[in-house]
Amino acid sequence: MKNPLYKRLGRELWHDLPRYIVIFLFMALPIALCAGYMIGNDSMIRTYNEAIEKYNLEDGHFQTLFSLDEEGTEQIEKEENLDVFPLFYKEETGKDGHTVRVYDLSDREEINQVCLHKGDLPASSDEIALDRLYCENNEIEVGDSFRVGSRTLRVSGTISVFDYSCLFKRNTDTMFNAQSFTVALMSKEGYAALSTENEVFNYAFRFPERLTEEKAHERNLEIRKNLYASLIAKGNMLSDYLAVEDNQAVQFSIIDIEGDLTMMLIFGILIVGGLAFVFALSIKSQIENEAGSIGTLKALGYKNGELLAHYLLLPTATTLLAGVVGNILAYTVLKEYLVGLYYHSYSLPTYTTFYNAKALIFTTVIPILLVLGINLFILLRSLRIPALEFLRGNLRVRRGRKVKKLGTGMPFMTRFRLRVIGQNKGTYVALFFGTFFACVILMFGLMMSPLLERYKQQVTDSLLAPYQTVLKADVPVEDRTAEKVYMTQLQYGLDDIMVLGVEKTGADSRYFGNLKLSDGKVTVNRPIKEKYGLKAGEAFEMKEKYEGGTYRFTVSDVFVNDGSLMVFMPLDDFRETFGEGEYLPMVFSQQKLSVDGALVYKTVTLADLTAASDQLTSSMGDVFRLFTLFSVILFALLIYLLAKIVIERNARQIAMMKILGYKVREINRAYNLPTGIMVMISLGINTVLCRYLIELLWRIIVPMRMRGWLDCYFAPYLFPLIAALGLLSYLAVYGIESRKIARIPLSRTLKEG
Q1: 632-690 pLDDT, tens per residue?
Q2: DSSP state, 58?
Q3: Residue pair 216/243 in contact by the 8 Å Cβ criterion
Q4: What domains appear along the chain, each with residue ranges and CATH number?
Q5: FRET label pair with 364: which of 488, 537, 544, 640, CA 20 to 30 Å apart?
Q6: What pTM, to 2 d.p., does this model score?
Q7: Reduced to 3 states, what is the DSSP secondary structure of residue 481?
């Protein structure tokens, strides 16, 4: 005989359809987001690791001030046991002043090979292939004309090269820049036709065999020192040496992808914890609502096992359906969308999807088992209660608990609302923690755009000079606005710090009027102080990038200047500290210097300094919007589910109030208004807590993960905006629950009385 309990399932589902829809969404959306991230990230990590061998990635590269002849290259290969490949490039100016780093295509046949995305590789001298992401950001299509210097070329194709999976113009830059910087390839004839004025003598190398990270580090230190000494002896200079492990253009993307995978696992754990809390309250509320029915069924002889199977069926079906739908969304729409976000940030090679069981287990199986376990635990505990207690609706054990008296001086409705809050304190505790979780995501999503705009404005306002040019040789500069200092770079923490020897300050200087220098000490700029906490009177050590020597300095003052991380010292102290040949002249000017381009090592402009904020806004804007949307939906669902629980728990009392003549509007103020009050209190407290939590995490994580510095900034409008979003979410729920109150029949209290 068919179990009669099954006939109740359709009616129960229809009666509690909003609850099951909310539970479904509460599970399906986080599962889809987390699984999509994990599937996409894991596949991209595997694609990245395979590409190291597929495209013959370099183990490092070095740059010299002057080119090496064939004999010099062979000598380095023999002495250092390396395979060295000339990989020269020329930096040209493209449209809107963008930097185009042009390589000879033929130089990439054996090292750092090319991934073609669209079109063809350049075959004639008037063709050029550009980085795919740069073309995407600047709306350049295959076949378009593209200006490089004084020449107009045809874009033959879009490419990515693995040594620029992240478009860093310089390894010392705070952020990559796919907006105004691109890597380009030309044929041998096309490359030769470009001016040699800005050619960089770059050499990529590979070890004969793959080394462990520790062995590679030791070899790089040794090679770096040997090259530095041998080149100096030959009248040349090692202007850059970069092991692949330290190369941001190679490592930044994979570190970010792997870091995001860890973040999403933590995010998933928090989601599961929140789900467990909400589900526990939901199932308890359902048992309380079904108390009469459960008591009747127990009295009719139904066993606990039969009742358990019955009341587990709909939650189980809902969670399984949420898992299936969440995974379908993850493997289709969301995976492609989330991977697309990475491809909008990084110049990665062609992507291959790898399906894996880990995402299914972490994002679907474990949450479903946890939810079922919670339901099972609460049902087993509740079904031990005798049938008579169920029929009486007495499901709570009160061991000598006394009802707290409220002052008679309070208005009746105020005391009533306080009673509602007291009776539902567990629900409101869940609301508090759920609000905290949603608030963290919402605040992070909303804060980034104004933070980046503020950073850009800070850099613009504190710009020392429109042009900051580093020269290869100390030659006279005729420009009347030019002011020469001397520059070297030292390492501190993750960063390459620019150390400047300054002669003129105060009224004598156009650019360093507010800079205060002390003999024997150094002045640090504000980003160094904020990132590393260095204060006046504090001593710190920086080390040489190539030779490994260390220098100890004492801070005398902090210079209010944003952008690059810089240390300033008197010129005499600078020359005494650093020997001749270990530093280069740097010229600050109002316009581009009229010197031979072959003598220019690099030029930094305002566009270079603000590239970090422009790039982050472009590449991460969609991520910020996704987090904001997700947090608002999660917050609204949470308020709805918990407000629904409050109404259902008090349905009998609401029916009694109707019998006593209270209008729906008055009952709303009695039951829905306390929820609104608790929502706004929770939101207010959590907004403050989230701000301090984000500031704390920013101070801990950003110095560990990011070169350079961005201040943690909360725009003044942020907090009213969060409050407004919370209030709008509550008002939407208030309208829904008001209609539910209006539909509660007066007979409810008579039937259950």
Answers
A1: 777 777 777 777 777 776 677 777 777 777 787 777 777 777 877 888 888 889 888 98
A2: -
A3: yes
A4: 1-65+237-395 (no CATH), 85-206 (no CATH), 413-463+613-753 (no CATH), 476-594 (2.40.40)
A5: 640
A6: 0.64
A7: coil
